[in-house]
Amino acid sequence: MSEFDPNGVGIANGNIFGFPYTESESDMIIVPIPWDATASYGKGTSKGPEAILEASTQLDFYHPDLERAYDTKVYMSPISQEWKEINSHCCEQGMEYISYLETHGEEKALLKYQTVLDEINAAHEALRANLKERCLDLLSQGKIPAVLGGEHSTPLGLIEALNETYEDFGVLQIDAHADLRDAYEGFTQSHASIMFNVLKHAKNLSKLVQVGIRDVSEREVHLSRDNDRVQTYYDWSLKNEQYAGKTWASQVDEIIAQLPQNVYVSFDIDGLKPELCPNTGTPVAGGFELQEVSYLLFALVESGRNIIGFDLNEVAPGPEGDWDANVGARALWQLVCACEKSRRNHLGK
């Protein structure tokens, strides 16, 4: 292991944050997935992992809620060139299909482009299966797995691996969208379907707690209302309560009380205010400051909950500058530090 100076200039050594650890040395493994083939509004999130990796060495590594945060042993796997190429091919075909769908309607589009859909869905299924196998291996080694997307569909295999590892767990979802649609636009693992698929495939999931949702269909609202496993905190409700004098601290206490002991955190960057992530695929007015999310994450840890994994998705670099990647790297740092504090707590450190 090479020397690392947390007060010095970040070194682009190929690992996230320029940290000096290998996979075998690390407690936390981030798997980057450059995939955005089902994104229908804005492309570019497949470039998120690479942009965040590049921006991550520009951070300073003091954290007010985690002593010696820079000692966190975290490693990010190399970004797969093969999956970048598969995604590029699927995107090219998918955009032609989506363009036709928006002009002629879903029924005609499905008839004309069924072969294209089958190919994209098959590639997506292979991605899910490969990720699940990878994460089961990491979990068997006692490591904490995480996913850096890409679109929000990417972590399904990881969550399925956790479902096979834990008898009971919850998901804390920070997002502008509920993602409770079934096979949106014909894509069986659409970015708009991730939590629908989690509820369907993760039978050991006892609670999905959604926070910040503000762009949602009536069917998704009804699904949340009628499913005992789902609790949704809509952005408008949180804001209206705050206008009437309720504090974010008390709201956070209510949110955390809904969650079981073991918690997976799913963070879609569009849960933040859109000025913090202007190039994300589907930005929505409203949302959180990054520090509000950090407060929620560390309150979760202080409650005694155990963070068993996480994802960060939908970061898309813009055509100019690195603002989205810079914010994305800082969002990832908050997730990593909260997860590390949870890990240390449960080791008795």
CATH fold type: Arginase, Chain A
Q: Quickly count the helices.
A: 10
What is the ordering of alpha helices and beta strands?
EHEHHEHEHEHEHHEHEH
Tell the overall outline.
globular
Q: Approximately what portion of the residues adopt beta-strand conformation?
A: 5-15%
Q: Tell how many strands the DSSP assignment holds.
A: 8
- Report low-confidence residues grouped into runs of 5 or more: none
CATH architecture: 3-Layer(aba) Sandwich
List the quaternary state of the chains: single chain
Please tell me the overall pLDDT.
Answer: 91
> Largest sheet, order of strands side by side?
2-1-3-8-7-4-5-6
> How many domains, in number, for the residues?
1
Main sheet summary: 8 strands, parallel
Corresponding CATH superfamily = Ureohydrolase domain
Describe this structure in words.
By secondary structure, this protein is an alpha/beta fold. The chain has a single domain, classed as 3-Layer(aba) Sandwich (Arginase, Chain A), CATH 3.40.800. It is built from 10 helices and 8 strands. It has an 8-stranded parallel β-sheet, sandwiched between helices. Helix 6 links the parallel strand 5 (205-213) and strand 6 (230-234). It is globular, with a radius of gyration of 19 Å.
